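Lab meeting, item 3. Inverse folding demo.
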């Protein structure tokens, strides 16, 4: 598999009222094509800061971020960022919301329009294409936001607590939905979450960070012998509890 992302010795500091704060210290990891990787850690440890730096929003103090072998600094068109809120524009139809990224980038070609429409059809939103966000459930809105992100064909998708605004039952359904969509589209993704079960059930690997300044404590590879793996099936698997206990202990030790 090709290496999509490589973070090398990242150090991220920011200026606070009481002086400089080091949020991330010497963090290195890589993400290969098609992988889904989660980042977990104590509250306030720098998870979102790290993701924001990879997105090019927060400047890094030192180190390198490489995308497909090329160093990037600042916002990159090949990296898409999905936040907690779906940020759908209430006055635009679902289809027009999905197309907004292509509009902004002046990429409304027939090929890209056809791809966006295929995503809507494949993932159950075609019949709602002329509806407005207020007419959709929370789960459907999140699916529309994901399709909007995928329509620009990013090399890397970043998700920052993308499901935390949903109620528990909807969240379980949506994470299952999102996982299946990303795997079917062979999309490489990196997600920050505070939810350990979510990280285990969705990810190929889980990166555990320490308290601030964040360093990598451990990286767990999650293996489930399940045909047609999905997050819901993983939660019922015998190995799930083992992974949860290991990650929980790792976090608990270093928070304490």
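The presenter then showed the designed sequence:
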């Amino acid at each position: 598999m090709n290496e999509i992302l490589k973070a090398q010795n990242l150090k991220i500091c920011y200026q606070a009222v009481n002086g400089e704060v080091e949020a991330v210290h010497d963090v290195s990891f890589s993400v290969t094509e098609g992988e889904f990787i989660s980042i977990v850690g104590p509250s306030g440890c720098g998870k979102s800061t790290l993701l924001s730096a990879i997105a090019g929003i927060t400047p890094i103090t030192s180190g390198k971020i490489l995308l497909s072998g090329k160093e990037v600094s600042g916002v990159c068109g090949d990296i898409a960022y999905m936040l907690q809120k779906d940020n759908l524009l209430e006055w635009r139809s679902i289809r027009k919301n999905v197309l907004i990224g292509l509009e902004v980038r002046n990429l409304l070609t027939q090929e890209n329009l056809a791809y966006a429409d295929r995503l809507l059809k494949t993932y159950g939103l075609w019949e709602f294409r002329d509806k407005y966000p207020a007419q959709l459930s929370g789960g459907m809105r999140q699916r529309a936001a994901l399709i909007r992100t995928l329509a620009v064909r990013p090399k890397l998708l970043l998700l920052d607590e993308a499901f935390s605004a949903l109620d528990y039952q909807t969240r379980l359904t949506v994470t299952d939905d999102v996982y299946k969509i990303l795997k079917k589209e062979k999309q490489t993704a990196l997600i920050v979450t505070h939810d350990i079960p979510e990280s285990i059930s969705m990810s190929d690997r889980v990166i555990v960070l320490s308290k601030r300044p964040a360093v990598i404590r451990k990286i767990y590879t999650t293996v489930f012998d399940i045909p047609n793996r999905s997050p819901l099936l993983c939660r019922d698997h015998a190995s799930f509890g083992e992974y949860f206990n290991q990650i929980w202990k790792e976090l608990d030790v270093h928070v304490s």
